[in-house]
Amino acid sequence: MVHSVALIGRSHSGSHPRPGEISLAHHGVLFLDEMPEFPRAVLEVLREPLESGEIHIARAARRATFPARFQLVAAMNPCPCGHLGDPQQICRCTPAQVSQYRSRLSGPLLDRIDIQMEVPALPVSALQEAGPGESSAYWRERIAQAVDRQWQRQQVRNAQLQGELLDQFCALDTVGTRLLSRATETLHLSARGYHRVLRVARSIADLEGSDPIGTQHLAEAIQYRRLAQTLAQ
Questions:
Q1: 124 in a domain, yes or no?
Q2: pLDDT tens-digit profile of 36-85?
Q3: How far apart, in Å, are the Cα atoms of 58 and each of 23, 55, 94, 155, 217?
Q4: Rounded to whole angstroms, how far apart are CA atoms 117 and 224?
Q5: Mind spelling out the 3-state secondary structure of 76-108?
Q6: What's the rounded Cα separation, in Å, for the pair 151 and 156?
Q7: What is the pLDDT of residues 115-160, one digit of tens each?
Q8: Which residues pair with 55 in a beta bridge?
Q9: C-alpha to C-alpha distances, 208 to 19, 136, 182, 200, 213, nearest whole angstrom
Q10: In 10 A of CB 222, how many CB atoms?
Q11: Burial class, 189, CB count within 10 angstroms (exposed 0-12 / middle 13-18 / buried 19+)
């Protein structure tokens, strides 16, 4: 059983507070496999650092703040058996089991995950016919160029854009504004979700070397929020 102290850190009696996994992953990646298998109470401690980039530990008379600006990457199955929606396998989970499994991911936690993608099972033919694809070196170069654009333009990464900087560098044209307004109503986006869509769209535009956020960039960013609506059902 994983406890929340493993993620946030701990403070034993008579000892200094020690950082947990989320602080050890500072400026790196924290990967949680089979995310719904973690107790909900453990997952909920991720909410604060995902928002602020810090974690606060208070034990008796001792208090400490550790850095925790990490990139969360998580994976999950569509249901406990893993076969829901698979045309090749029969799902044996009941609706109640699927609902209980998905309910371990709260709405506020999902709201803090920028990109949410469903990856269906591939048939054997697709695996056998798969081409070489794009190399890691190719994407490393593109990402480095996109990050450089961000620093040159605003002196922070897109993930740190707030307030006036967010309004200035994630500005949309009339068509984009209407598109995001419709998506906000359809997907019931919170204010946090609305702003996260803008930041993702800004990053997609940067990867393509585009100064303005185009409609295609915004539409792609909106697509990455649709899974949360499915999981909430």
A1: no
A2: 998 888 899 899 999 999 988 876 667 788 999 999 999 999 999 999 98
A3: 15, 10, 41, 33, 42
A4: 6
A5: CCCCCCCCCCCCCCCCCCCHHHHHHHHCCCCHH
A6: 5
A7: 999 888 878 888 888 788 889 999 999 999 999 999 999 999 999 9
A8: 66
A9: 38, 17, 25, 13, 10
A10: 20
A11: buried
Range of the domain at 175: 136-232
Domain boundary among 49, 80, 113: 113
Token pair 């991911």 in the structure block, residue: 105
Kindly report the CATH number assigned to the domain that includes residue 61: 3.40.50.300
∠ Cα 214 218 220 (to 5°): 115
Residue 89 domain flag: yes
Q: How many other CB atoms are there within 10 angstroms of residue 215's CB atom?
A: 16
How far is residue 105's CA from residue 29's CA, in Å, rounded to a whole number?
20
Are 24 and 59 in a shared domain? yes
Helices 191-207 & 215-223, crossing angle to 10 degrees?
130
**Mean pLDDT, the chain, as a whole number?**
89
The structure's pTM equals 0.86
